[in-house]
């Protein structure tokens, strides 16, 4: 990331134009963090204020509040500016509590594990 | 602009280069500017950086290593090949509901798998020459 002067900020890849804006940060492990950008550096290390993790399982979602977060740049995939006048999520999605979303996450994890073991069994039996 | 009134002025003019002005590419279009950028960039090993700089303003699709594909207008690029896109829309929107209201984004260079370019935006010959020069110089 280049340290642009005040005139170049509009044309450069600097995150300066995102300061104090509500952002969506996608991480390498698939997590989605939302928050206000406090600061950044040349490695795309980022400090988010009032951060929350948006967990999405199927049509259910939940925002888990996290507070002040410092994200190491190597884990950042994408930083997106959330438009305030647009809907952040499709209307068919329902907001649930933290407990419910954790339960849904566990169910999804178990389903994928089961799919994995079934596939391994099939491969062992050499089914096509 | 610069008057030569004495011998000292003459020497100064040599130093400033007024006596032998460099041929300016005034009639060039962007094409010649691209050529110049690519030629200069080769020596500094920044071929792709310069190439992407010339593609600013074009519609590209960036495919990330996590399989997310984003289409948008290339706003800017930097030495790490971090990319800033404007007017973005995700290719498979239903799979990524959280990206619904994102219209501008910054993509870290290290997570890009592909950058899909419009074929008319690519001058293959120019790239070939620049690559050959870089291979020779590197």
From TrEMBL, chain A:
The keyword Thylakoid does not apply. One of its GO terms (molecular function) is mRNA binding. Pfam families: LSM. Its main location: cytoplasm. Residues 10-85 form the Sm domain. It is found in: Cytoplasm; Cytoplasm, P-body. InterPro entries: Lsm1, PTHR15588, Sm, Sm_dom_euk/arc. The keyword Ligase does not apply. Coiled coil: none annotated. Keywords: Cytoplasm, mRNA processing, Ribonucleoprotein, RNA-binding. One of its GO terms (cellular component) is Lsm1-7-Pat1 complex. GO terms for biological process: cold acclimation; deadenylation-dependent decapping of nuclear-transcribed mRNA; hyperosmotic salinity response; mRNA processing. Component of the cytoplasmic LSM1-LSM7 complex which is involved in mRNA degradation by promoting decapping and leading to accurate 5'-3' mRNA decay. LSM1A and LSM1B are essential for the formation of the cytoplasmic LSM1-LSM7 complex which regulates developmental gene expression by the decapping of specific development-related transcripts. Required for P-body formation during heat stress. This is U6 snRNA-associated Sm-like protein LSm1. It comes from Carya illinoinensis (Pecan). The lineage of its organism: Eukaryota, Viridiplantae, Streptophyta, Embryophyta, Tracheophyta. The gene is LSM1.
